[in-house]
Write a structure and sequence with these properties.
By secondary structure, the chain is α/β, with parallel strands linked by helices. It has a single domain, classed as Dihydrofolate Reductase, subunit A. The chain is built from six helices and nine strands, in the order βαβααββαβαβαβββ. NADP nicotinamide-adenine-dinucleotide phosphate (NAP) binds next to strand 1, helix 2, strand 3, strand 4 and helix 6.
Amino acid sequence: MNRPHLVAIFAQSLDGKIAAHRAQRPSFSSPEDYRHLETQAAQQQALIMGAATLRAYGTSLRIRDPELIQRRTAQGLSPQPLTIICSDSGDIPEDLPFFRQPLTRWLWTTPKGSRIWRNRTGFEDIWVAADWDLPARLARLRSLGIERVGLLGGGRLLGAFLQAGALDELWVTLAPVLLSGYADAPASIEGWQVQGSLPQLELLECRRGSKELFLRYRVEWL
Ligand SMILES: NC(=O)c1ccc[n+]([C@@H]2O[C@H](COP(=O)([O-])OP(=O)(O)OC[C@H]3O[C@@H](n4cnc5c(N)ncnc54)[C@H](OP(=O)(O)O)[C@@H]3O)[C@@H](O)[C@H]2O)c1
């Protein structure tokens, strides 16, 4: 496969929403779900996140558990996965706490978005393309030795990866909450238009937490 293995990790309400409002981080995740997210993220070499999610959270995921960090270093990995932000506009406030997190930050953007960052230093590397350009970007990541990548959302980012047929696994946390009564509640997958046949999903794991269900699916592209 000419790209890394890609796993999406996110939590959604029972009615398929990932926050009450697009500009806000979700308020329904439990400490148990955070622990699950951190554990899955710690197995990845890179994490990819949409700019709208970064603007809503102000930070990206940072592995804090010393045991998980130690496991990474024993495997020859850096303490933290590389963090890649996808932004069309490049509109990411420089004063976000994200830029003070101990992470290596890259930006995938467009010519328009890259202009904003020309004289700024927040990202160590900036990849520019006219559109999402995912097959080429993912092939380039693979050629740099990055074989395992986690997708942290949001829904538009996941929609773009599905559109490119670039997803191998889904880790979905089903949270006991209903959010579709909010007018601008973002969905777990947006902007994907089926071309050809649907991907097949095979249930690999189903774990019952104290409040949530943790579901892991393999995605097969026919
Ligand atoms: N429950 C969960 O597990 C979870 C997880 C993640 C996020 N969320 C929630 O999801 C919401 C945000 O999701 P979302 O679907 O609105 O957005 P998103 O998936 O976070 O972001 C999509 C981003 O794609 C960027 N983009 C568009 N075209 C691009 C291109 N050609 N190249 C590179 N990047 C491109 C856009 O950047 P620009 O906007 O800069 O143009 C946009 O911000 C927030 O409410 C957040 O709290 C929840």
